[in-house]
From TrEMBL:
This is ABC transporter permease. The keyword Transport applies. Its main location: membrane. It is a multi-pass membrane protein. It comes from Streptomyces shaanxiensis.
Length: 215
């Protein structure tokens, strides 16, 4: 069976796996973004706190993904829980680091002007600092998403959802007729999803970042 014949015969299952893969990454990115930006907001004004946040999330990223999921299985079981926890933790570093860099890069004179017209600390953060820090934050989100697309394939080790199951089935049956087709289909599916997500982020950037800031 050729690769194209394999795709034609298994397209429904592949689409289901691709949807589950994209859904898992998207949901984990939402959680990682909220946590990462919150950590950045809490720590960016303090040098040691910002360094600690960056160091902690960097340390998490050094743990091999297979080991991370393996350690989580005895605690939360198989399936979705270890996948969500692992992906969320792995997605933190670029978002935390870029949030801190972006917030520290806001022109202090703009913050002082906002304070001068009576804006509260929360209002300054929401209406001045975070909007100006949004471009680097969005870049961090894009980087995290690309990483998680690949890492999510390892979730199949814990019976997690996604295209990793297709790849693992192919690797487990090397030598059989469709083994290579399965690995290739899963790999190309992840690449296509990563490109689609990145294109969506480019569009979001064009819609949410003023032209002057983009330049």
């Amino acid at each position: 069976m050729t690769f194209w014949e394999y795709l034609g015969n298994r397209h429904q299952q592949l689409l289901t796996d691709a949807y589950q893969h994209a859904s898992a990454v998207f949901q984990c990115m939402v959680v990682a973004t909220l946590l990462g930006v919150l950590i950045g907001v809490v720590t960016y004004q303090s040098g040691w706190a910002g360094n600690l946040a960056t160091l902690s999330t960097s340390t998490i990223l050094t743990i091999p993904s297979l080991a991370m999921i393996g350690l989580l299985i005895p605690i939360v079981g198989l399936g979705v829980p270890p996948t969500v926890i692992a992906l969320t933790l792995y997605g933190l570093l670029p978002i935390v680091r870029n949030s801190i860099v972006g917030l520290r890069g806001v022109d202090p004179s703009l913050v002082d002007a906002a304070r001068g017209i009576g804006m509260s600390r929360l209002t300054r953060l929401l209406r001045v600092e975070l909007p100006l820090a949004w471009p680097p934050i969005l870049t961090g989100i894009r980087v995290s998403t690309q990483m998680l697309m690949g890492i999510a394939a390892i979730a199949a080790y814990a019976s997690g959802p996604g295209l990793g199951n297709v790849i693992f089935r192919g690797l487990a049956s090397l030598g059989s007729a469709n083994a290579l087709n399965q690995v290739l289909a899963g790999t190309l599916g992840i690449i296509v999803l990563a490109l689609l997500f990145d294109a969506a982020y480019v569009l979001i950037g064009r819609l949410t970042i003023p032209r002057g800031i983009r330049v």
